[in-house]
């Protein structure tokens, strides 16, 4: 399943660069280097979530820094999820310790550079005075050599320490991304959950409006799903959900985003897809699901077929996302009321 603001994976060098820049930006703006703040700044710089970039740009336009409460609100809006809390917490603690270590290293480098500058100033003053004997000259040169060597050693040590810290942060960022992907995935079906759908919807609608492109939405609901649970048990119901999730995932093309919308309802966002093509894909999915009989492998008991009702809508540039989803949902309701196991198109509003 391809969902660019959520599952984008970067190479270690790029991740390290974004991590280092995020630290510098937070330090420059006097923003506390907490794991949540780092997460916001990292994704802001990486450009994985355009709505986040818009929100943070708007706040930065009002001043040079952003308050702690504003940063927390951004984190809650785009990254907060109940799943993976333990992993996020432990990784966050480790990340914060690393950030503080980096700040300490950079601060120490500033002190060392200041001491080196003082040595140079003393030497310069002595030479300008013109009253220095050979013994003093020898001592002065020795001081300069010693200071230069010390500064060189300090810089090499700092460079090594910063590289090690950057590598640790890259590993932690990968760990956080893994936890976040898990938090955005429906545990039963293995496709995206409602949170991932909401984020993908914002991202794809933004892209469609910005580039005047197409965007279609398919909402589907399993017909008579309650029957599977009531007659055959919840284990069979879960298997039906997994089958529909797998079929939906298999139907993904390019940058489509598939998700379990809630209960027995699923969604598929289809960027760069015309309405006619979206309807054709929806009907092929419906037929594919209904063409297979389900039965128990051990007992041979038949569970019948899985049919779905589907509503499809085309996004109108600039319309409220809630309205877009509602139109697809209304088309789904009509498919149900007209007898189920069918695809219905939402009225196509003028652009």
TrEMBL record:
GO cellular component, one term: plasma membrane
Gene3D superfamilies (alphabetical): 3.30.70.270
GGDEF domain: residues covered: 213-348
Gene Ontology biological-process entries: cell adhesion involved in single-species biofilm formation; negative regulation of bacterial-type flagellum-dependent cell motility
InterPro entries: Diguanylate_Cyclase, GGDEF_dom, Nucleotide_cyclase, Rev_trsase/Diguanyl_cyclase
Enzyme class label: transferase
Enzyme Commission number(s) of this protein: 2.7.7.65
Coiled-coil annotated spans: 155-182
PROSITE patterns assigned to the protein according to its UniProt record, in alphabetical order: GGDEF
Domain of life: Bacteria
Record-level Gene Ontology MF annotations: diguanylate cyclase activity
Transmembrane regions listed in the UniProt entry: none
Keywords for this protein: Coiled coil
Keyword flag Coiled coil: yes
Record-linked Pfam families: GGDEF
Catalytic activity: 2 GTP = 3',3'-c-di-GMP + 2 diphosphate
Protein name: diguanylate cyclase
């Amino acid at each position: 399943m391809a969902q660019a603001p959520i599952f984008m994976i970067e190479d270690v060098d790029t991740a390290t660069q974004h991590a280092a820049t995020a630290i510098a930006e937070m330090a420059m703006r006097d923003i506390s280097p907490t794991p949540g703040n780092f997460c916001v700044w990292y994704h802001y710089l990486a450009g994985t979530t355009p709505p986040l970039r818009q929100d943070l740009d708007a706040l930065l336009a009002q001043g040079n820094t952003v308050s702690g409460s504003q940063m927390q609100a951004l984190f809650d809006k785009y990254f907060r999820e109940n799943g993976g809390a333990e992993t996020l917490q432990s990784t966050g603690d480790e990340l914060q310790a690393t950030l503080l270590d980096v700040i300490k290293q950079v601060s120490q480098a500033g002190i060392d550079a200041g001491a080196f500058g003082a040595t140079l100033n003393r030497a310069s003053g002595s030479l300008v005075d013109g009253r220095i004997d050979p013994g003093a000259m020898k001592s002065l040169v020795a001081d300069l050599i010693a200071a230069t060597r010390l500064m060189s050693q300090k810089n090499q040590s700092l460079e090594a320490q910063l590289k090690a810290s950057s590598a640790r942060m890259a590993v932690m960022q990968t760990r956080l991304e893994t936890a976040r992907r898990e938090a955005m995935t429906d545990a039963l079906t293995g496709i995206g959950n409602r949170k991932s759908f909401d984020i993908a919807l914002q991202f794809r609608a933004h892209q469609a409006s910005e580039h005047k492109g197409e965007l279609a939405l398919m909402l589907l609901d399993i017909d008579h799903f309650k029957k599977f649970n009531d007659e055959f048990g919840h284990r069979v119901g879960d298997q039906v959900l997994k089958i529909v999730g797998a079929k939906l995932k298999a139907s993904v093309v390019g940058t489509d985003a598939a998700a379990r919308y809630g209960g027995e309802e699923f969604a598929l966002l289809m960027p760069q897809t015309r309405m006619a093509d979206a309807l054709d894909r929806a009907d092929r999915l419906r037929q594919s699901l209904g063409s297979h009989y389900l039965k128990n492998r051990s007992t041979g008991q038949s569970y019948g077929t899985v049919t779905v009702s589907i509503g499809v809508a085309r996004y109108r540039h600039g319309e409220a996302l809630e309205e877009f989803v509602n139109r697809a949902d209304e088309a789904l309701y009509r498919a149900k009321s007209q007898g189920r196991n069918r695809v219905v198109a939402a009225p196509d509003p003028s652009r």
